[in-house]
Amino acid sequence: MSSNMWKKAKPYLLTIGLQFGSAGMYIISTATLNHGMNRYVLIVYRNAIAALVLAPFALVLERKTRPKMTLSIFFHIMVLAFLEPVLDQGFAYLGMKYTSASFTSAIMNAVPSVTFVISVIFRIEHVNIKEVRSQAKVIGTLVTFGGALLMAMYKGPAINLVGSHDDGGHHESSSHTSSTHWAMGTLFILIGCVAWSCFYVLQSVTLKKYPANISLSCWICSMGAMQGAAVAFVAERHPSAWAVGWDTRLLAPLYTGIVSSGITYYVQGLVMKTRGPVFVTAFNPLCMILVAILASFVLAEKLHLGSIIGGFIIAIGLYAVVWGKSKDYSTGTSPTSDPTDLKDENEAHKLPITTTNGTKLTIIGDKNSSNQPAKMQYMTVQK
Fold this sequence. Notes:
Elements: H1 2-34, H2 39-61, H3 71-98, H4 101-107, H5 111-121, H6 132-153, E1 158-159, H7 169-175, H8 179-209, H9 213-235, H10 248-275, H11 277-281, H12 284-298, E2 303-304, H13 305-331, E3 358-364, E4 375-381
Antiparallel strand pairs: 1-2, 3-4
Helix pairs in contact: 1-4, 1-10, 1-12, 2-3, 2-9, 2-10, 3-8, 3-9, 4-12, 4-13, 5-6, 5-8, 6-8, 6-13
């Protein structure tokens, strides 16, 4: 009986653990940036460690299935590395520095809606406005954007939680003194969301040509570290910026590289096999709540009324989009099907990339039906 209970509770416990891990990423990264670490230096270390973590698994587990590298695939990898580690992480860190960790985690819930819009533009996803599931995705997207706009335009009064202080320390003085910075920070985070969503669309194309998930992830992290290093050398000319010590400057790259790439990828894969990506995505708002609580104690952050209302609205939009996608699954390939029962061409490839917390897009194409649009699946990527 106890074994059966554990089997039922296991997906819930693992997914909740993923959200705690993602919340830790926001807190540690924010603390590191507030202590003066250059965001591009953090990106370099983070992706380099992630590549080192993934490389042994790629060499061992995919040594027989890894396809040959071509110039076209390598070009895709370079673009993916620029979209994800450089643009997405760079702008998300910049926006986090201008706003707060809790604010960033709330805005990042808009990624599924942004991905949906981009997928419709590129005809990866088809919308039939007469269908309820399509209406839910469209309305959810509009609601999500409305919540993000509210958070950008309306800051509102500060709400003191237990552990927050009136003086707010360094973070309050640097991140909350100007409404202009708040709006700019929101814009930077949204640019990161768009880059992340574009990454997913291109990733789905690349995985069809290079269906070695871990190897592709390792390549992207490696190239992202190299591109980030080139930007960092231009943006930060002081050698001291690259120094690490026994503090958050060392903890942040290790945590995001090891926990967010290695452990999260493995745990997420276990949950995906039994419950599907919609199950994982449904827990996204939990990270937002955890970050708000932890940031109050650790970073002395203050929540603002606009952030609370906007985050709640974004969560409603997220669930509307997720509900619409769940109806797609019920009419097509089940996301919980055994992967061994699917053909290689129709498998949902999952790519673990270290990024700011959000969701991940997986696209399933039907080889035998050229008229059927590809189906997207969203899942969280913890960092």
